[in-house]
Specification:
Blueprint (H helix, E strand, L loop, with lengths): L9 H18 L6 H13 L4 H9 L12 H16 L6 H14 L3 H16 L4 H9 L3
Length: about 140
Amino acid sequence: MKFLELFDSRDKKKRLSHIRNLVALACADGSLDKDEMELIFKIGVRAGLSPDELHRIFQRPDSIAFYPPDSYRERIEQLYDMVMVMMVDGELHDNEITVCKLIAIKLGFRHQIIDKMVHDTVEMIAKGIAVDIALARLLNLV
């Protein structure tokens, strides 16, 4: 870790952690393909991370510590992003689903609802339901 990274805000550490989780998830099927990489990069830029920070995460994901989101909405948004990454290559691999569920547990979701949340998110994305509507529906699953 670089000296200046010690002074990153908690918010930035959470954003870096989220991208790290997405990279781990994308690699769970044994390869990180171009579509997964592009989507993760796009999510990272949307989160306000620089291209240099994103390249560092892709090169050394283990250098980023896990920081869970503070709010339930942030956790839902991160779960949604994870499912998007799983689906971007057109295939849902068992290893990706397993890693997604493990990360969801680390994010603080209850074991009892993870399967339903992942399943419902996959269905909503496949049906083309707008992100805001999908997130609202997921928020109501609690």
